[in-house]
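Ticket #733: bound-state structure for flavin-adenine dinucleotide.
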Amino acid sequence: MDLLPTPEQVEIIDSSATFLADQISIARTRELFESGELPAVGAAAWSAAAELGWFALGLPEDRNGIGCGLADEVLLFREIGRRLAPGPFLSTVLAARVASFGGHQGLSDEIAGGRRVGLVIPGSLDAIGPDGSIVGEVQLVDADPDGLVLTVTPTIAALVAVSSLSDVTEVPCVDPTTRLHRAVGTGVGPVSSVASEVDPVELRGHVLAAALLTGIVEWSRDTGSEHAINRVQFDKPIGVNQAIKHPCADMAVQAQLAYSQSLFGALSVDEGRADAEFQALTAHATAAAAAEFATGATLQIMGGMGFTHEHDVHLYVKRMELLSHTFGMPGLWLDRLLELPEPV
Amino acid sequence: MDLRFAAEDVAFRDEARTWLTANAPTERRPKLGRAVRDYDLAWQRKLYEAGWGNVAWPVEYGGRDLPLIQQLIWFEEYARTGMRPIDTRFVGLAHAGPTLMARASDEQKSFHLPKILKGEVVWCQGFSEPEAGSDLASLRTKAVVDGDQLVVTGQKIWTSFADHSDYQELLVRTNNDVPKHKGITWVICDMKSPGIDIRPIRTIEGGADFNEVFYDEVRIPLANVVGDIDNGWSVAMSTLAFERGTAFTISQVQLAASVEELIELARSRRSINGRPVIDDDSLAKRLARARADCAALRSLTYLGISKNANSDQPGPEGSMMKLHYADLAKRVYRLGIEILGTRSLAIPVDEDDTEWIDKHLIAYSTSIGGGTSEIQRNIIGERVLGLPR
Ligand SMILES: Cc1cc2nc3c(=O)[nH]c(=O)nc-3n(C[C@H](O)[C@H](O)[C@H](O)COP(=O)(O)OP(=O)(O)OC[C@H]3O[C@@H](n4cnc5c(N)ncnc54)[C@H](O)[C@@H]3O)c2cc1C
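RESOLUTION: The complex was predicted; output attached.
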């Protein structure tokens, strides 16, 4: 048992942080979405991420991937979350798996090479059929109208062509860096699909969403604490006051919990533990609760600046909402957590 | 990174489990009186004789000096027996003992450490005073040197197990002319010394685990001072370096087990409206949340142990675990009361239900004893995040 990153894993953290700071900075993200480009990630940066192997990191080598574990992907996604990088990283990484395990290696290679795949958020649980097709009202996150979207349920994950859907309408998303469509499924069969026994795509999704949220919690902790140290009122840094200091401490605890449980969830999936589903859902539920708390706490610590468009905190609040409503929502995960057998 | 335990660790878990299953006491621990001490010390003797006296202590002091991972495994297995995480053995094994190892003279060590390990003595901690709680360094219990003795006069409070104790790690003020942290001395006090008066304090759940202790010109040999006169603050703090987050595992595992029992209880009991308690969606969600929170606390424990296994300085996870555990324990045991509903009013309902009421009441102490949650938040804010004092 060891939850410390290896030197190779530290390298993943450092190099991804450097790349993100360089190529997908929040300043650049703002430029893009303010000029109406959604998702707010430049084509060049996206291709560069593909070239770095980000979309094939966790794919086995015999599937043309890099062969790293889900825990390695957690470390990458934590950095993506921390730096608020927009774009369908989560669904594209999962989609490359679905295509490969679904028997479409050529498509998988294309996706790993940078073909974006959006994510389906069903309006109701029965909007996704048992074969992964879309049969009801859905929302599409970061979908290209001529591209593919990913459906995920506890039993199956599938790729569906957006062109097969009806009433596809773009609508503003609460997260201004994200493109959102409404659409209605027509039951056209998926392009590729994989059952969860073959590859637990849903669980991987929960763990990676937890990792993104962990990055958000850590950004909030660091941003809130820094302001608490630097902002002076009544001749003292505001951080001397426990009404400020204590939520900062709570953010530190929440960040550590979200991080450790994301790793625990990832390793449970990697190692095929009997309680992998429990641990992965717990990771998402833990990180979502932590991020809700931490973004709110930091917004409050910022004072009036926290309420502005200019400060980044609102972007993190909104991303948190998106990620807390991905692959279901907290109430649903909790219902499942109660029904599952006791963790081992 | 890896969640799996190495083959030798798995074998170790088997060994620990087998021994504990065969040897853990089956009769309930008494609640009051001398029987409490007898029960705890008998258990310690049994552990010692089988080589389990203390898995964390160095071998030179009779411990097992297990690697942190195996300590974790031992405490996970120990927790399954349902034995309390803290009993009258606690201060000797986990606090005074490690302090002696770090700072005492060879003579003091060779006299006291074996007695602790063999289950011959009980120790208590005389730190808190009526006027010195969170601000421990403001303590006033006075000690003056008279020949080769210290003469101690004053009062301690909240001293757990003082009435069962042979020895006490006692903090006294030996100097009033220097800053408050600099005039404190750490001394071994024989609890049978003349001039000591112990008065039990009844606690919220009806027990009497802690006490007031009065000192009226109590004479303690200077040879019992650990470290130097006036240097006791640094001696008291040295124990912290020993605590590396493994012993805490017992509380964490037992809390998770309690959540599982509460889920069962909510499934088997009916509410006042005749429906199974678990049908209350708000309660069900909070039980699920508690389950998730216990799992996350375990992952935090594992992360802390992974870090500490690779460094000499314990990480901040210790304060974080304590703080989070306290919040969680209070939340979990309050759920027990909600599940029992109106039945929670009568004591005793039946033996098992009474236990839930006790656990709920005792949980209030988790955010007070051993440094309050407010103080833990200060520590994390200031030492981990660098916020101003
Ligand atoms: C079950 C139990 C067992 C114990 N066993 C022992 C023992 O064996 N030996 C021993 O010496 N002591 C023992 N204690 C005492 C324990 O260490 C003290 O109760 C604790 O340190 C708090 O001190 P206090 O009770 O004086 O509260 P105070 O320090 O007076 O605190 C009162 C309230 O004020 C808050 N507060 C104080 N200072 C600050 C601050 N700077 N910022 C924010 N809030 C603050 C506290 O958090 C608390 O909520 C035990 C306590 C309990 C509950």
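RESOLUTION NOTES: Residues A 242; B 124-128, 133-134, 158-160, 210, 365, 368-369, 371-372, 374-375, 378 surround flavin-adenine dinucleotide (CB under 6 Å).
TICKET STATUS: resolved
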